[in-house]
Structure formats: structure tokens, C-alpha cells
């Protein structure tokens, strides 16, 4: 009986040690993802290497354990993101394809754990769009229309100039767009965005945020000196920042189906004489005045 107890304790200690090693590898991979998102590829690669070293040992010890195989696939996927961030499309494709094959191998096991299948499905839901569209990663156009969920790890191809995400259930504009200065065209209509932070970009010329729930615009339109088209229609705006008048290259401004007072529409017409301003039929209120913050508010 004691012998059996010792064996059981030994087995449990091995299982516990393996779990600890996998948790450590998982932590390194999460750190790598955070550094990728921050653009610190050297730190991302350092953490990836640490995770890969642990996983290589675990694979040699437990070649048939699906958890080890799963995190090995995640490591390959992480490497793909690193290469993609560095602009090396060929190596990123190779890494993503390697990860995808490993995921597929896990799913083919006859007596597989439901937990394994669930984890892989979640991974595909979060990041599968990158793998599926990687063949187009050299394209200048990225279209994610009707995508239910966009991963925070998503990295735009280096040459992307146009990004579309219509009906994606977005509550805010993805942060990777705010960090990318090569984007010329952003279409994010039919979402659930409530607050919009004006990005800094010398190249952005087209911005469509129509059919959202935007109540406020934060930042300075001076940071978008070459913007030519701005669609803010069908939102919940009651005020617009006065610095919108700095958009001297703006050709079309659509603010219809909001609650912006007509007095400010007149200010826009006067301050942007070369801009076609699309607005509703407003009722002029005698007490509509400019507030101290430099914006005009509605009732």
C-alpha cells in the first residue's frame, strides 16, 4: 500500500511539474504578445525564445500530450506575428502554416479532450482571420467586414493603406489602427463605437465612422492635415471640437442624423468654405452659443 502511495505521489509530482512548466511557457508567450503589440520585437522575440526552450523540453518528455502540442502551436503563431511585425511576410506565412498544421493535428486525435477542441476553436475565432488572410498580407487592402471578433494581437500587414471593418461589433477603433501611420482609408461604419480618439496621421484621407453611437470626439483634428472625407452621420453627437476647422483639405463632411446645433453648422460653412457639408434641416435656436471649451453644444 505504501509502495502504491509513493508511486502515486511521484506521478502527481511529475504532472504538477509539467503543469508548472507549461504555465511558465504560457506566461512568456503572453509577454511576447504584449511586446508585439507595443512594437518591441526584440523583447517579444526574447520571451518567445524562452517559451520555445521550455516547450522543446516538454515535447521531448511528453510527445503525445495535447497541451504541450497546443502551446507549441501557439509559440509558432507568436513567431508568425513577430515576423509579420518586422515585415517579413514569407517567414510569417511559414510560421502561421506550421501553427495551423499543429492545431489540425490536435483536432484529428480520436480520443481528444473536449477542452483541447474548445481552446483551438477559441484561438481560431480570435486569430484565424490573420491565418486565413495571410496570403493577401502583401496587399494594400485589408477587409474584415462582418468579423465577429478581432484579436488584440492582430497586426496589419506593413503595406496596408486601406482598412475596412463594417459591422464588426466594435466598441472602439482597434488600437493597431491608431498606431499605423501608413493607413490612408478607414471604414468602420455600422459598429457600436461611443467615443472616438482622433489618431495622428499625415496620410489618412478617408474616414467613415457613420452609423455608430459616437457621443464625443477626443483629440485634435490638426493631427489629420490631409483628411479629405469625413463621415460622422447617424451618431449621437451633440458637439464637435472647434479644431475641426483646421481641416483645410476636407472636401466632404457628413454630420447628418446627429444633434449638432445649426449655429455650429453655419460656423462650419464659414470656416470650411471649400468643404461640402451634409447636414439635416436644423431649427435655429436663439440661445445657441459657443461654450468655453471651444465647442458648440446642442440642447
Short description:
With 299 residues, the chain is α/β, with parallel strands linked by helices. 44% of the residues lie in helices and 11% in strands.
Low-confidence stretches: 2-17, 127-136, 282-299
The dominant shape is elongated
Helix content: 40-55%
Q: CATH superfamily membership of the largest domain, which one?
A: Ribonuclease Inhibitor
Q: Largest sheet, if any? A: 7 strands, parallel
Architecture of the largest domain, CATH level 2? Alpha-Beta Horseshoe
Structural class: alpha/beta
Here the CATH topology of the largest domain equals Leucine-rich repeat, LRR (right-handed beta-alpha superhelix)
CATH class category of the largest domain: Alpha Beta
Number of discrete domains: 2
> What string gives the helices and strands in order?
HHHHHEEHEEEEEEEHEE
Q: Give the overall pLDDT as a whole number.
A: 76
* Distance N to C terminus: 82 Å
Work out the number of β strands: 11
* Number of separate helices: 7
Instruction: Give the strand content.
Output: 5-15%
Whole-number radius of gyration? 25 Å
Largest beta sheet: what is the strand line-up? 1-2-3-5-7-9-10
If you had to describe this structure to a student in words, what would you say it looks like?
The protein has a seven-stranded parallel sheet with strand order 1-2-3-5-7-9-10, covered by helices on one side. Strands 4-6 form a two-stranded parallel ribbon. It has a two-stranded antiparallel ribbon with strand order 8-11. Helix 6 links the parallel strand 2 and strand 3. It is built from seven helices and eleven strands. The protein is elongated and about 75 Å long. It folds into two domains: 16-135, Serine Threonine Protein Phosphatase 5, Tetratricopeptide repeat; 161-297, Ribonuclease Inhibitor (Leucine-rich repeat, LRR (right-handed beta-alpha superhelix), Alpha-Beta Horseshoe). It is 44% helix and 11% strand. Helix 1 runs antiparallel to helix 2 and helix 4 (89-108) runs antiparallel to helix 5 (114-132). With 299 residues, it is α/β, with parallel strands linked by helices. The protein has helices at 2-37, 41-61, 66-86, 89-108, 114-132, 175-179, 262-271, and strands at 141-143, 162-164, 185-187, 195-197, 206-208, 216-218, 229-231, 239-241, 252-254, 276-278, 295-297. The longest helix has 36 residues, at 2-37.
Amino acid at each position: 500500500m505504501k509502495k502504491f502511495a509513493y508511486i502515486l505521489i511521484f506521478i502527481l509530482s511529475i504532472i504538477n511539474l509539467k503543469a508548472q512548466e507549461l504555465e511558465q511557457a504560457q506566461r512568456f508567450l503572453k509577454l511576447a504578445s504584449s511586446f508585439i503589440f507595443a512594437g518591441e520585437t526584440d523583447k517579444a522575440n526574447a520571451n518567445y525564445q524562452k517559451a520555445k526552450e521550455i516547450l522543446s523540453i516538454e515535447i521531448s518528455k511528453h510527445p503525445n500530450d495535447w497541451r504541450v502540442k497546443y502551446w507549441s502551436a501557439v509559440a509558432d503563431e507568436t513567431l508568425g506575428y513577430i515576423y509579420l511585425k518586422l515585415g517579413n511576410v514569407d517567414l510569417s506565412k511559414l510560421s502561421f502554416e506550421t501553427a495551423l498544421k499543429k492545431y489540425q493535428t490536435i483536432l484529428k486525435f480520436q480520443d481528444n479532450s473536449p477542452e483541447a477542441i474548445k481552446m483551438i476553436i477559441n484561438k481560431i475565432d480570435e486569430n484565424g482571420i490573420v491565418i486565413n488572410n495571410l496570403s493577401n498580407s502583401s496587399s494594400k487592402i485589408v477587409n474584415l467586414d462582418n468579423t465577429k471578433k478581432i484579436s488584440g494581437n492582430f497586426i496589419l500587414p506593413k503595406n496596408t493603406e486601406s482598412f475596412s471593418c463594417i459591422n464588426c461589433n466594435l466598441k472602439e477603433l482597434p488600437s493597431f489602427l491608431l498606431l499605423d501611420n501608413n493607413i490612408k482609408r478607414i471604414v468602420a461604419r455600422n459598429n457600436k463605437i461611443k467615443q472616438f480618439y482622433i489618431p495622428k496621421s499625415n496620410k489618412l484621407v478617408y474616414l467613415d465612422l457613420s452609423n455608430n453611437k459616437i457621443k464625443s470626439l477626443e483629440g485634435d483634428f490638426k493631427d489629420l492635415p490631409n483628411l479629405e472625407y469625413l463621415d460622422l452621420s447617424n451618431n449621437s453627437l451633440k458637439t464637435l471640437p472647434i479644431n475641426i476647422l483646421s481641416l483645410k483639405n476636407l472636401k466632404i463632411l457628413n454630420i447628418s442624423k446627429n444633434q449638432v446645433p445649426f449655429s455650429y453648422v453655419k460656423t462650419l460653412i464659414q470656416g470650411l468654405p471649400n468643404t461640402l457639408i451634409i447636414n439635416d434641416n436644423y431649427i435655429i435656436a436663439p440661445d445657441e452659443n459657443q461654450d468655453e471649451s471651444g465647442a458648440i453644444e446642442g440642447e
